[in-house]
Amino acid sequence: MLDGFWLDVKLFMAVEAAVLVAGLVVALVRHSRAPALFPLRLLATVYVDVFRGIPTILLVYLIGFGVPALRLSGLPTDPVVLGGIALGLSYGAYVAEVYRAGIRSVHRGQRDAALALGLTEAQAMRHVILPQAVRRVAPPLLNDFVALQKDVALISILGPAEAFRIAQVIQGQTFNYTPLIAAALLYLLVTVPLARLVDRMGGAEGVR
């Protein structure tokens, strides 16, 4: 079961890294008002609306079983990879909106001041707006990652031997629910410290 949980942790870390980058890119595209980026803005809006609207478990099922059913060369067939892609698409949409809310929360005067000092729009975004926005949304981002750590268990429906799947198999063989309790405790070892970190960061934001 520990080996299965280590698979969960590795998948969580990989998906988290991808989501942080992809979510920021989507948020920046949606925030941009450049006419040339309108097609990308439209695409980013559709992406956020669609993948926030589909339940994560359904998305894992559709991608995990649907992609191999296409039988197209070059597409991944590993259920862990497909499950990770599904989780990344789902959580990327949520994180993009968290980032966008943070960017919009920075007062317009900050941008105007940066431009008055001679910075370009891109430099103002990178050096002035984004650092403030990311600092403000750190607690909700961590909250999303607490949820992601738990939702990694959803890939069990695709068959990989992760902690929840292994606990189910052992329980089915022995009719003993202790393995499921052990799996729950393993998840708590990660999610509870993250939750306490969210609480501390939220309190610090309130003080500031």
What does this structure look like?
This protein has helices at 2-31, 38-53, 56-70, 79-105, 108-116, 121-151, 163-174, 178-207. With 208 residues, it is an all-alpha fold. It has one domain (2-207): MetI-like (MetI-like fold, Orthogonal Bundle). The radius of gyration is 20 Å and the shape is flat. The model has no long low-confidence stretch (mean pLDDT 87).
What keyword list fits this structure?
single chain, 208 residues, mainly alpha, MetI-like fold, 8 helices, 82% helix
Q: Write the H/E string, N to C.
A: HHHHHHHH
Q: Give the amount of beta strand, in percent.
A: under 5%
Helix content: over 70%
Given the C-alpha coordinates, what overall shape results?
flat
Rg, rounded, reads: 20 Å
Number of domains: 1
Mean pLDDT: 87
DSSP strand tally: 0
Q: What is the third-level CATH name, the topology?
A: MetI-like fold
The CATH architecture would be Orthogonal Bundle
Report the major sheet.
none
Coarse structural class: mainly alpha
Low-pLDDT residue intervals, each spanning 5 or more residues: none
Classified in CATH, the superfamily is MetI-like
Question: How many helical elements?
Answer: 8
Q: Roughly how many Å apart are the termini?
A: 43 Å
CATH class category label:
Mainly Alpha
In terms of topology, how is this protein built?
Elements: H1 2-31, H2 38-53, H3 56-70, H4 79-105, H5 108-116, H6 121-151, H7 163-174, H8 178-207
Helix pairs in contact: 1-2, 1-4, 1-7, 2-4, 3-4, 4-6, 5-6, 6-8, 7-8
At a glance:
The protein is mostly helical. 82% of the residues lie in helices and 0% in strands.
